[in-house]
Amino acid sequence: DKVQITLVDRLGQFYHSLGALRGVIDQDFASQIFIPYDRVFTPESNQSGSSNITHKFVQGSLSEVHPNHIILEGGEKINFDYLVLATGSSYPAPAKMISRSKDEGMAIIDGLRERVSAAKHILLIGGGPVGVELAAEIAEHFAEAIKSGEKKITLAHSRNLPLTDRISQRMRQDIKEKLELLGVDLVLGHRLEVPEEVGFGDVLERRVIKSFDGSISIDSDLQIKSTGIRVNTEFMATLKPTKEGVLLVDPQSHCINVNPRLQLADPAYGHLFAPGDVNALPDSEKNAGCAFHQGELVGKSIEKLIKAGYHRHEPGSEKALNILEKARLGEWSVGLRPDTMIALGRKMGSLQAWKWAITGAVSNFIVSRSMGRDYKLSRAASTLLGYKVKLNQQ
Fold this sequence. Notes:
Layout: E1 6-9, E2 13-15, H1 20-23, H2 27-32, E3 34-36, E4 56-59, E5 62-65, E6 69-72, E7 77-79, E8 83-84, E9 89-90, H3 102-118, E10 121-125, H4 129-141, H5 143-148, E11 152-157, H6 169-181, E12 185-188, E13 200-210, E14 217-225, E15 230-231, E16 272-273, H7 288-308, H8 318-327, E17 340-344, E18 348-353, E19 356-358, H9 360-368, H10 371-374, H11 377-385
Parallel strand pairs: 1-4, 8-16, 10-11, 10-14, 11-12
Antiparallel strand pairs: 2-3, 5-6, 6-7, 9-15, 13-14, 17-18, 18-19
């Protein structure tokens, strides 16, 4: 009852990026993936006993991180006892959003929707989760136009099956077959020579794109490059390690190095946590499921440290390290990794639980009732932020 929580985010509202691709074909759905933060702290949570501490939301971009404070763009300073660096990753909009307001974000999504609707041949470059799910959403929505030959969807991927080799071949084969059922033309096993100006469906413009070996040539009028995820860790340049040989940021991936408890790798920064896309854990995949579960783990860890009085001691000191050892914080492991689930429109999908793939009609049933229904927008809106959504069931 004496803890103040400050939530900092560069957007004025929560952007449910998990459902962004459905918004490309469903305007009503798109308008609901921007969820205001005005209910994230309930009136009850803002009445913290006799201390009368009020939690708050601050809109701003993180510029600098220091051991006990952060600096936002514009110079605002915010002190902390514990810091959660959940800055995630960047990706072309609308899969991730760069705008600072709902109106700007909706304009981006609406523009892409118009181009997708007008295009005769859409080429998606990259068969990861974004490329696969977007191809399925478009193909399902324009099923009649694809059957009549008025519209064509091509998905090109450098590997011989969609997704990466970390996913079971059985699941990847299942996704391939279901995309073909939707009428998606697959070009697999070829790396395309993509011009630098090609973005995430930025313009409606006819282009002929060839493979590097020259064996493939694809003529399309809308190109969507669904590759190139980048983690947001530029602010880490101001935080220096306290021990020689400790790297806070991996020089290749630019992800934050953490221990299995999701604390920064330097023992002096046991009060700094980095859950989600932003960390360098090898068993932490860049998806919403991992981020959600790691956020829960970090929340429980901070609660334990607060109760143990960790913040009353100098981080890295003998007393602080003793508290860390006795607190027995939970660790992230492969066993905690959530299932991999891919929605292929509203009615189909594929999933993998641990190392076992669930495919065919069974996976269609499971995925259509969770991810396929609304990409878990209802759960995010109601459970986290107190809002209800209205779904357009097609």
